[in-house]
Amino acid sequence: MDVYSQQITSLLEVIENVRRRKIVDKDYSDIIYIDPLNYVSKLKVQNNHVISGRRGCGKTTIMLTSMNNRENYRAITIECQNHRRDNQDTIIINFLIKILEVIEENLYETIKNIGLFKKLKDSTKELNSFNEMINSVIENLAQLKNMPDSIEYKIKSLEKHNEIKEKQKSKEINSNSGIDMGFKFQKINTKINMLSNIVISNVSNISSKSEKSIESEEEYIKTVIKEKLLDELIESIAYILNEHKAFTKNEIGLYLDDFYQIPLNKQTRVIQYFHDVYKNCENKSFCFKVCTLPNRIKINYDGENVLSLKDDFSAINLDNNLSNIDITKDYLLQILSSLNKDLNIKPRDLEQLFSNKEALINLIIGSGGIPRDFLIMFADVISSVRANNEANITKSTIYSIVNSMRSDKDENIEFDADITIQMIESARQEIEDEIVNNKNTNVFLFAHNQTDDKLALMRNLVNSRYLHIIKENTSSENKKKEMFTAYLVDMSFYINGKQKKRNFNDRPFWERDEKSRLKHIESAPIFKFKE
Asked: Do you know which InterPro entries this protein is assigned to (predicted)?
């Protein structure tokens, strides 16, 4: 096989399709996810999961793989980027409506398949009533979404008296061993309908402090908070999910892709809301899966520790450690060769396309070990080799396409970082000046004991793919008592055209000495940001 073969041409077409894969495209039944750590099986368990990894690490692919070919399972997929400008309660309402619409559709299919004779039975009537109730909740949620965050309106003393009696009735029902969830729904739907009518007909009086002071004794000011109404729905939503499982035998999984696109100050409310729904669900009727960048999820409000990533979620990290280049090489070639099994391409066939192993290693380093970047760079170097009528892939070919990857990273800073672009650019420039230009190398160490703001800078540079982690815990031959993370500077910082920077010390960080030590890492320069 060579770079001009029809198999490679077909492979390039597959790469173009794969790079545009979206979570809403659930018909990828032929996806093959290379899974050396058995993450797919872990993700299929009906628990809440947080899947983290940089852009291009395979978060969408692993989720699509985990939801395919599953019996008695309904996957609900949401592209969070489409909701990043909504307020937090609107996000929750939109997600709830999506869940309820899927349940309604699933129940309709169940009713349709029951058969004419069974449709006369009480259980089917109950199913129809349940479906009607869900439709009512969907309509009321849609109305609630358009309401203000809070509403103040006047009620007469008689209405106040009736409201107190209604609360007492609710307490009596809830004190019994069997809670009448139908009553709860009736109560909540009545409240939402009432508020909807207030807003639509403009009969509410949104009162100021001065108005409150002159109210007669027969009138009261009632304040209704949208957030509180949503919270009152948690048990009821869980009830719907439980009943849906009982009627259809189907479990529900909510998949939130690119959750980092939702600002951090909105994430906590969304996460805690659906975690509360999950806690109230029975028999594995519901769970949710969150895909995000590393360190870009906020599950607790400041000053509280209600949830824990360790205790309340199953965590999956898709970022690779680059310290063992052979493992990374085998993994990436296996991904590439498995994109279309019909092409019958083996990893060794792909290796033969390179002039030598050094050229292949340069492609791995250029991609930072990120699967999608590796696929895109492979496609680009093949196109370059063909355009220049060359025999195989060389280092200079790889260097020539590195800068095209850099532009993609620059364009996505605002999405991949949670600090300002100016802070990213300043930190990036400082590392380039000190490590690439002054130290003339591409590997450096950064101490674990640095301040939180400096560690945050490093995390954001990694998420933006300007830096790549080689090894998270390592020592330095110059400072034996400290622990460091070893970083690789992105290749775009030291490539000019088709050549490396002159006299550049490109450290073979994966090589071990006779004592199996990674000496090129341990001897790397130590970097500190300027104060």
From this structure: ORC-CDC6-like (IPR056955)
Q: Report DSSP state, residue 341.
A: G
Residue 484's pLDDT is 98
pLDDT of residue 69: 81
- Torsions phi, psi for 260 (to 5 deg): -65, -15
Q: What is the pTM of this model?
A: 0.86
Express each pLDDT in 485-516 by its tens digit.
Answer: 999 999 999 998 888 988 999 999 999 999 99
Q: Which of 368, 397, 426 is the last residue of a domain?
A: 397
Instruction: Place 52 in a pLDDT band, splitting at 50, 70 and 90.
Output: very high
Residues 92 and 192 in one domain: no
pLDDT over threshold 90, residue 221: no
* Residue 41 and residue 30 share a domain: yes
Strand 150-156 relative to strand 219-225, pairing: antiparallel
Q: Which of 424, 507, 410 is nearest to 459 (CA)?
A: 424
- Integer CA distances (angstroms), 227 to 28, 144, 149, 269, 301, in order: 38, 10, 7, 10, 16
Choose the final residue of a domain: 397, 424, 445.
397
How does strand 443-447 pair with strand 484-489? antiparallel
Rounded Cα–Cα distance for residues 401 and 176 (Å): 70
Burial class (CB in 10 A: 0-12, 13-18, 19+), 327: middle
- DSSP E strands: which ranges in 211-362? 219-225, 251-257, 286-292, 314-317
Q: How many domains does the structure of the chain reveal?
A: 4
User: Do residues 439 and 393 both lie within one domain?
Assistant: no
Nearest to residue 106, comparing CAs of 123, 130, 84, 80?
Answer: 130
Q: Give, in degrees to the nearest 5, the angle at Cα 189 between 184 and 190.
A: 100
8 Å CB contact between 43 and 35: no
> Which domain does 56 fall in, by range?
25-125+137-144+233-317
pLDDT at 119: 53
Average pLDDT over residues 323-330: 95
Res 117: pLDDT: 47
pLDDT, position 68: 85
Question: Are residue 114 and residue 239 in the same domain, yes or no?
Answer: yes
Structural tokens at position 328? 């990374």
Do 217 and 74 fall within a single domain? no
Q: Beta partners for 76?
A: 254
